[in-house]
Each structure stands twice: as C-alpha cells, then as structure tokens.
Write a structure and sequence with these properties.
The chain is of the alpha+beta class. The protein has one domain (about 1-135): Rossmann fold. It has helices at about 1-10, 30-40, 100-125, 135-145; strands at about 65-70, 85-90. Strands 1-2 form a two-stranded parallel ribbon.
Length: about 150
C-alpha cells in the first residue's frame, strides 16, 4: 500500500518499490489491500508481492531511502542494500493479521492506508533541503514519531 501511495502522492518526484521478507507465494498482494487501494482511487497495475532480496541484487534500482513499515519488520535482519541508503522504520500493525469478519479486516486495511498517507503527505511536501543525503534518514525517522 505504501508503494502505491507514494508513487501517487510523489507525482514522479519519488519512485517507490515494495518488498518483504515473506512474500506471498503467488506474487499477488493481499486482495483486501488491492481492494482498499482501488477504493481510494489509487492505481494497482504492476503491484506484486516480492522478496526484498531482489533489491539487494546488482541490477536492482538504486535506493536512496528504505522505510520498513510492518511492525514485524522492525526486529528482522534486513538484507544489505547496495549504496547503503538511509533507513527508517514506520511501524504499522499488519492489517492482514486482524481477526474477525470482512468488515473488521477492511477497516484495518483502510486505517493502515490512512496512517501511511498521513506520513507520506508530509514527506512528499518537504522542501528539497530536507531530502539531502545527510538529512533524509533523520527526516524519515522523525516522521515515525507522529
């Protein structure tokens, strides 16, 4: 959801990618995540579940900033990122782990999307000086304190 949201809000200023430590076997994102994005008017074409290992390969896109977003990711050992990008953690509860009926699950995905959007709206509107190599990591970490 963060990939789709940043690519939408960034309007070409940023290029977001998403990956995780345990991608879905069928490479399809959670159907409720896709439904939530679609209902929010965000494009979902090209979204797929993938391992973060693909971004540690030599031909991977260069990352300036890596933000982990799942609460579970905070304690995981992340791969080596070529170019040693800035890193930050924006912890969100995993909406796919919510117990209950479809309405509770949809509400969890929507809440997570709203929380992601709140931080990303601030991030994409930061002045250029806040996105310099020296300050981008601190800026991203400060946003986690919202």
């Amino acid at each position: 959801m963060a990939e789709a949201m940043l690519n939408h809000l960034g309007k070409g200023r940023f290029k977001a990618y998403s990956a995780g430590s345990s991608p879905r076997e069928n490479q399809k994102p959670n159907p409720l995540a896709l439904e939530t994005l679609r209902h929010a008017g965000l494009p979902i074409d090209g979204l797929r579940s993938k391992s973060w290992d693909v971004f540690a390969q030599a031909d991977a896109p260069k990352m300036d900033l890596v933000i982990t977003v799942c609460d579970n990711a905070a304690g995981e050992v992340c791969p080596y990122w070529p170019g040693q990008p800035a890193t930050a953690h924006w912890g969100y509860a995993d909406p796919s782990e919510v117990q209950g009926g479809d309405d509770q699950k949809r509400a969890a995905f929507l809440q997570t999307l709203h929380l992601i959007r709140k931080r990303l709206e601030i991030f994409v509107n930061l002045p250029e000086r806040s996105l310099s190599r020296l300050s981008i990591e601190q800026t991203a970490r400060d946003l986690a304190q919202d």
